[in-house]
User: What shape does this take?
Amino acid sequence: MPQMIFLNLPVKNLETTKGFFGKLGFSFNPQFSDENTACLVISDTIFAMLLTEPRFKEFTKKEIVDASKYTEAMFALSAESRERVDELVDTALASGGSPANETVDQGFMYGRSFQDPDHHIWEVVWMDPAVVQDQG
Assistant: This one.
């Protein structure tokens, strides 16, 4: 079985967050979702567990970071083209997300970012496959 990644993210309003990511074309695994949790499917092996803040607090003794003021992490997603980067970020911004960082365009690499409704920062990046292969 391939190794899987589960990101656990606190959310203020689960339905708002589910609606946001649904508009971006992501699906949810109902087997691992309930009224306090939604399992966002990013790929066959990568998932984001969106947890209401009270549910998230059950897994940590630390305070939850106020992502509107502080950055604890940034999540980067690959895209198959520059156009897909723009499509995903533009949809995020039109669906209730907000801008995060400036566009990065280095020719062989192109990326944009957005904040979801809970202010988590998501980067979407395309890299020229020819350049990536040369690095291997």
About this structure: Residues 82-94 form the longest helix (13 residues). DSSP finds four helices and nine strands in the chain.
